[in-house]
Specification:
Helix content is 65%, strand content 4%. The strands form 2 sheets. A two-stranded antiparallel ribbon has the order 1-2. It is mainly α. A hairpin with an 8-residue loop joins β1 and β2. The protein has 13 helices and 4 strands.
Length: 320
């Protein structure tokens, strides 16, 4: 990769522009979403207030502004692969937006990101490196394997959402971890997606954290999951990326127990503490059943668990 102005300047500028664009777009977009009735109820609050939904549009705006800065300032040698990745993640965001507006079926949310990621599967190298094992040549199967991973990650990103700032914070932790790994391995292709994403997410958390003034919607969650997965592939961090998705994978199997009909939300929040009564079909259910806690405590607990997992991944990677 060429870097006429230096990676630090280019990535720093991209982060700042993505953050600034999202930060400015959120207050502008919230009243417009409310005026059109694009709202959701905050089910973990006593009075269940209505909050603007589909705020992920602001994150996508900031993300593409940041990517534009990188393309302008930093000489990207593999632009074709980056462009294919951008079309893939934008497609995932579009599917999320359609779901927010028209409520797609679960199978449709799985199929459409897969379909839109087929060009990425065709463009990627079929050879992947697995630590302690070596290189694995997937051959023509990479055309299907990569889209399968994208659709899994896109939908996994939505699995643990439902509490103020939870999904956004997880995205920041995961993005930061992969950025660190990309620089450690000198495989910066994925950083062209991750740095703008992280900048946008940091800005979005400003109004998405407790008490949330805007919800991300599936627009952001599908986009975020797909972007993190695509970045992991571009930087050839396949195993590391899979591991940091473990909480979402665990959430998938818990939701599978209830045929994906269960929600993460509490069953009662009238006393200021989150309560859950019923079958355990989410990590959040387990935490809420462990004792009286607030929404902020629950969110912080899951963030800490993800941060510990990511720290372990980086530590092991350094030792290998």
């Amino acid at each position: 990769m060429g870097n006429p102005l230096g990676d630090e300047i280019a990535f720093g500028a991209a982060f700042a522009i993505a953050l600034a664009m999202t930060y400015l777009a959120i207050p502008w977009i919230i009243p417009k979403l409310k005026a059109r009735g694009i709202v959701g109820k905050d089910l973990n609050k006593p009075h269940k207030p209505e909050v603007a939904e589909m705020g992920g549009i602001a994150v996508i705006m900031g993300f593409f502004a940041g990517v534009g800065v990188l393309l302008a300032l930093d000489g990207v040698t593999n632009k074709e692969l980056l462009y294919v990745s951008l079309s893939t993640v934008l497609g995932a965001g579009f599917v999320g937006m359609i779901d927010d507006l028209f409520e797609l079926r679960q199978r449709q949310k799985a199929f459409f990101p897969f379909l839109l990621a087929l060009p990425l599967g065709a463009a990627l190298s079929p050879i992947i490196y697995i630590p302690f094992i070596g290189e694995l040549d997937l051959g023509i199967w990479m055309i299907l394997a990569a889209p399968f991973a994208i659709t899994c990650a896109a939908n996994a990103g939505n699995m643990l959402e439902g509490f103020n700032g939870l999904g956004t914070g997880l995205g920041i932790i995961m993005s930061g971890t992969l950025i660190m790994l990309a620089f450690m391995h000198d495989r910066l292709d994925g950083a062209y997606l991750l740095v703008p994403l992280m900048g946008s997410l940091v800005a979005f958390l400003w109004l998405n954290k407790y008490p949330a003034k805007v919800f991300p919607g599936d627009t952001l969650m599908l986009f975020m999951g797909a972007t993190i997965a695509a970045a992991g592939m571009l930087s050839e961090l396949y195993i590391q990326t899979t591991i940091i998705f473990i909480p979402m994978i665990a959430e998938f199997f818990l939701k599978l127990r209830g045929h994906f009909k269960a929600e993460n939300y509490c069953t009662n929040a009238d006393n200021g503490h989150l309560e859950f009564h019923g079958a355990i079909e989410s990590i959040t259910h387990i935490i809420m059943r462990s004792g009286k806690l607030s929404e902020k405590t629950l969110v912080n607990s899951i963030w800490i668990l993800e941060a510990i997992l990511c720290l372990a991944v980086v530590t092991v990677d350094l030792a290998v």
